[in-house]
Amino acid sequence: MAPYESDDSATADAEELRAARRRKAARYVVPATVVGIAAATIGLVPALADSGDPDLPKISAQQLIEKIAASDVEQLSGTVKITTDLGLPDLGGLESSLGSAAGSSGSGDGSSADPTTKLTELASGTHTLRVAADGENKQKVSLLEDAAEYSLIHDGKDVWGYDSKSNSVFHSTASESDGKQKEELPATPKDLAEDALKAADKTTSVTVEGTAQVAGRDAYRLVIKPKDEGSTVGQITVAVDSKTGLPLKFTLTPASGGAAVVDAGFTQVTFAKPAASTFDFTPPKGAKVTEKDAAEAPDHSKDFKDSKDLGKGSTHERGTKGPGGSGGLDGLNVIGDGWDSVATFDTGGKGVPSGAEAGGDIGGFLDSLGDKVSGKFGTGTVFKTRLINALITDDGKVYVGAVTKDVLVKAANAG
Fold first, then answer.
1. 283-308, pLDDT tens digit by residue?
2. Contact 142, 149 (CB under 8 A)
């Protein structure tokens, strides 16, 4: 029995030795295998990336711009995702300090369904919009919110705004010859792209850089870059549908790098005629309806036109007046040209109060928000976002633009 037991023990020892060797080998083989797989994967990355880029005929930047201009898409429906990140600071505990004031400002005769109250919501965060269009006089934009929806409908002479959360309705009438209504939300990449292309001049580089697929459609990538070093804009990329010339996606990245400041694009789109019922609207039972004749509404289009003209010329006076023909941005000037242009106006009052003057949380917040600067103009405070910066001097003058702090100070010194 002893020899048998001895042999059994030797066999067990041999098996344990072989197992130990296998485990030791595994410690080297497994990492080597992983490295090999990783290397193979890295080698495949360019192929994988290229597989998503459609092979389209070559096109020049000028031809692509002409294609956008010639786009005659009048019927479409789809979903647009918009993400905006201006880098605005979190108000934090300051909200409680301003709570009563904010509450009172939200009350009054205004309607939560008024389109102008919804514009500010698109200035931050990520939002999903449903859009539909059937010619110049039928459009609909719906802003999807948590368990609620806001819709803006233009149907002939009627413009309806409906906020399901508050069950409130805003109604305006206008002549069909007015085309796009003053209350229209700038919802689509096409709206953003057209504004960007208006600024394309000798201060701008416009190129076609590759292709992309957006919402399942083949597109060219039009890249717009400022030549001016003082601009906070890094580049604007517009994905243009290769067949229709319609901009499908708009992305603005800052010169400072990081995430896009504005990223708006279709996630789904079709160019079929929307159902006529898409633009039908009847105020729900019990809804509060606010009537407003568009002919009586203040015309902000001149203000917006002036702002879009920034960068189109040299120093000159706009002479823009606020709504109603008085007040507002009276005597608006633009200093410089191209992407480095700065808008300036005089508030006629004092500048930003210091922390000591404002007191409490508000004063501390104001101090942390801005950078104190000085120059020939005197002293002031620069308030910064990832795109738009503003210098407010202590004597109430304002200099604002998509430019760096140094450019603002230089403009103030010259002004």
1. 999 999 999 754 444 443 343 334 33
2. yes
Mean pLDDT, the chain, rounded, equals: 74
pLDDT tens by residue, 154-211:
999 999 999 999 999 999 986 544 444 444 444 567 777 777 776 667 789 999 999 9
Query: Is 367 exposed, middle or buried, given 0-12, 13-18 or 19+ CB atoms closer than 10 A?
Result: middle
Q: What's the token pair of residue 329?
A: 């941005």
- Write out pLDDT tens, residues 166-175: 999 999 986 5
CATH architecture of 61-293: Clam (2.50)
Q: How many residues does the chain have?
A: 415
Q: What does the block give as tokens for 302?
A: 């001149």
Please answer whether residues 236 and 250 qualify as being in contact, where contact means their C-beta atoms are separated by less than 8 angstroms. Answer: yes
Which strands, in side-by-side order, build the sheet including 333-335? 316-317, 333-335, 342-346, 397-401, 389-393, 378-384, 370-375
User: Mean pLDDT over residues 246-267, rounded?
Assistant: 95
Q: Are strands 288-293 and 168-173 parallel, antiparallel or unpaired?
A: parallel
- Domain range annotation of the chain: 1-51, 61-293, 301-414
Strand ranges in 10-70 using DSSP code E only, listed in sequence order: none
Q: What are the DSSP calls for 79-146, one per residue?
A: EEEEEE---PPP-TTHHHHHHHHHHHHT-SS--TT-GGGTGGGGGSEEEEEEEEEESTTEEEEEEEET
**Which residue, 170, 167, 161, 133, is CA-closest to 148?**
167
Tokens coding 357? 């003057």
Q: CA-CA distance, 409 to 391, in Å (whole number)?
A: 8
* Element spanning 16, H or E: helix 2-51
